[in-house]
Amino acid sequence: MSPSEPHSSAGSGSVGTVERRRVGVFLLVAFGVAWLTALLIYATGGLTASPEVVAGTGLTLSAVLLPTAYMFAPAVGNVAARLFTGEGRSDLRLRPNLRGNLRTYALAWWGPAVLTVVGAGVYFLLFPGRFDPTLSTLAAALETAAGVAVDPWLVVAVQVGLALTLAPLLNALFAFGEEFGWRAYLLPKLRPLGTIRATLLVGVVWGVWHWPLIAMGYNYGFDYPGAPAVGMLAMCWFTVTAGTFLAWVTLRADSVWPAALGHGAINAVAAVGLLFVAGPPDLLLGPTALGLVGSLPWAVLAGWLLVRTSVFGE
């Protein structure tokens, strides 16, 4: 095992059996809390017509419930499975384990930005008519929203600057709610199936968990053939590819925090490519990493990690 691929104590995929009862409780709670939250959002107007929590603030019910009740459902599932099955607090993977893993944290912090920008570049190369080098579409949208002319390049600079610095850290606080469930609990529990199989399976489960939101137009909207079912499948494709990267940083550091940081970085940089789109974006294809074209760099990296790194050989 090479020095760059330290052994992870997150559990071996070569011995043991899947703890089905604990996995079952975890999935029941993680999906139950999230999907009931989605049902509440749908029943109160959905994502686009959600009522304001406090009148006049613009803060809607869906904007409150998504980063809290929905995103923290997997973390609740982790805690519930431990309580109801008597597992206790062993192997929580809450230690950051910074020593010897600074490179892993750096990759989690800035890797998503590189992959997202490359994916957007591939999209614009394949669809050059969609590229807006003057940011005219963004400028018009900003003027409509603000009522005065706003320099679109300033908006780009601010968003990119935040995406590379503070935003991944802030987003990690909310992404922890998911990663404490998916990568810190479900992934180790499924490793008796083999680390590669467990990683791919967690990615699929993570994607399916998003389906009620996709059905309401989240991430992809409805302006594409086969909506929203095709969008649901596209989400699973992305969660498998991105989930492989998040599993890799988790297993390298034997900690949930690189995954939370990486997940936060994904959310921070996701919309950057949209700033350069001429006209309405084709979200199913790109330029975000959630699009089928925009996700290609993630897929290439996932394949390389699965085949060439020793973490997934355990």
UniProtKB/TrEMBL annotation:
Any GO BP: CAAX-box protein maturation
Parts of the chain that traverse the membrane: 23-43, 63-84, 105-126, 153-177, 198-218, 230-249, 256-278, 284-307
Keyword Transmembrane helix: yes
MF GO annotations: endopeptidase activity
Domain annotation CAAX prenyl protease 2/Lysostaphin resistance protein A-like: ranges: 166-269
Record EC number: 3.4.-.-
Keywords per UniProt: Hydrolase, Membrane, Transmembrane, Transmembrane helix
InterPro entries in the cross-refs: MmRce1-like (IPR042150), Rce1/LyrA-like_dom (IPR003675)
Name of the featured protein: CPBP family intramembrane glutamic endopeptidase
Organism: Halobium salinum
Lineage: Archaea, Methanobacteriati, Methanobacteriota, Stenosarchaea group, Halobacteria
